[in-house]
Amino acid sequence: MELTKTQKKQRLAMMICSAFAIFFTGYPHVWSIYQPYVMEMAGWTQGQASMCFYLAPCTFVFGNIIGGRMQYKYNPRLTVIIGGGIFAVGILASAFLIVPSPLPIYLTYGVMQGFGQGMLYTAIISTAQKWFPGRTGFASGVVVTANGLCGFFLAPLSRQLLEAGGPKTAFLIIGTAIAVSWILCSVFFFVPDKKWRQEMEAKLLKKVSGNEESAGKTEEPRQYTSAEMMKTKSFYLLLATMLFGLIAYFILSPVSQTYQIEIGIPSAVAVSAVMFGSIVNAGTRLVLPTLSDKVGRIECIKIVLVVSVIAMAVLTLSDSYVVPAAIVVMYGCYGGIMGSFPSFTSSIFGIEHSGENYGYVMFGIVIATFGAPVLIGFVTGQGYGIKTVFAIGMVFAVVSFISLTMLEKNLKNKCSRKNKAVEICE
After folding, report:
1. Are 171 and 157 in contact (CB under 8 A)?
2. What DSSP letter does each residue of 143-186 carry, written as one string?
3. pLDDT in tens, 15-51
């Protein structure tokens, strides 16, 4: 059963408009540009202003979980409408809440933005995967690439808007653009026919099994609920792989530019490394998941982790011009992990509840986001330099590789026991 011309147009419109909406979910990552303007205008301390950034990724995960549950119980379009609306209203309202007390903007820019983005993100990424059976890596890669490009384009635009009219103007203009993307996504958000998807998945099972006779004996991959998923060993190994794999990047990211300057790298080179790193980050979010559709997700993530270990070792041991190159590589490793894990999660636990399931896996991002600055503060507070922090990041990347190897072994044992031909067993 092939897609009709109308269905193909629906899929294309959905992917384009959804990518446009997802693009703005990277908006919290440009907060550092807004922070000094808001501090000056409202009289906040640096700690008060920084909390806006930390609230957004934390509530983003909860938005993924609630949105994932909502789209399964009701429908994905309703989740997009509610989530996108919360997101857009949160940013627009922030324009009028730059006041001495930070609590109102904590609610709008922090909680509403993060939670709304999470609902939007989970509905889009799980529906995109359902439109591309057998190519879920490509589908999720397109979505997360749009997210990765946000900082590259919105950072210079936000800087211009802030210089011209201040935070209020910037919030209103960006908030309006977010509202437009939300409306377009809501209008052109189409879900694939379930019967068509099931038939395509059955064909894929036949292809994996090698012939129709054995395919008839092959069980369909189990569709885990979140409660069932969290009772498995695989979930915790997957969570550990993401957590330890991302800490190295979150350790490096805040100091990537200043560290280069401190060791004598020219400022222009340091800035260029960070900007080029952002491009590589976005590129690997698409390239690696698409490649993993063909060569295997575990193999691709293993390569990323090995490269991450090497890059962190370079940062630990060298003060030469290989440092900017290592920083660019680490940005790419971060993009590779972020791009691969949505389809990796659904390949293990099924696509039916993939939105909510991936929301729980994303707790690894929350722990890494909050844990990295605590780790940096603790280590430097004991009198050690930043190179010691980089060395610890390298060790965490090794731990991530070990967790992934254990996960691979656990999955192979499980597949062997059940004699099932599923994607992750290849």
Report:
1. no
2. HHHHHHHHHHHHHHHHHHHHHHHHHHHHHHHHHHHHHHHHHHHH
3. 999 999 999 998 887 888 888 899 999 998 878 888 8
Which of these, 210, 343, 325, 234, lies nearest to 285 by C-alpha position? Answer: 343
The number of helices, as runs of H, and strands, as runs of E, in the chain is 18, 0
Q: Which two tokens stand for residue 49?
A: 């202003």
Q: At 279, list the tokens.
A: 């491009």
Write out pLDDT tens, residues 304-315: 999 999 999 999
**Distance between alpha carbon 53 and the CA centroid of its chain, in Å?**
16
- Tell me, what's the pLDDT at 218? 44
Q: Give the per-residue SS3 of 352-364.
A: CCHHHHHHHHCHH
Residue 385: Cβ within 10 Å count: 10
Instruction: Report DSSP letters for 395-422, one per residue.
Output: HHHHHHHHHHHHHHHHHHHHHHHHT---
Closest CA to 298 of 272, 336, 325: 336
Has residue 408 got a pLDDT over 70? Answer: yes
| Total number of residues shown for the chain | 426
**Cα(101)–Cα(44) distance, rounded to whole angstroms?**
8
Identity (one letter) of the amino acid at 315? L
Task: Summarize the confidence of residues 263-283 as an average pLDDT.
Answer: 85
Distance from C-alpha of 114 to C-alpha of 106, rounded to nearest angstrom: 10
* pLDDT tens figures, 327-379: 999 989 998 998 889 889 988 998 888 888 888 998 888 898 888 888 888 99
User: What predicted TM-score, i.e. pTM, was given to this entire model?
Assistant: 0.79
Rank 250-264, 284-298, 349-363, 387-401 by mean pLDDT and report only the highest.
387-401
3-class SS shares of the chain: helix, strand, coil, % to 5: 85, 0, 15
Query: What's the rounded Cα separation, in Å, for the pair 342 and 350?
Result: 11
Quick one: tokens of 82?
A: 């509610």
Q: How far is CA 37 from the centre of its chain?
A: 28
CA distance 72 to 53: 29
Residue with tokens 């994932």: 68
Torsion angle, CA of 90/95/98/103, rounded to 10 degrees? -10
Per-residue burial over 331-345, b = 16 or more CB atoms within 10 Å of its CB, e = otherwise = bbbbbbbbbbbbbbb
- Helix (H/G/I), strand (E/B), else coil: 237: helix
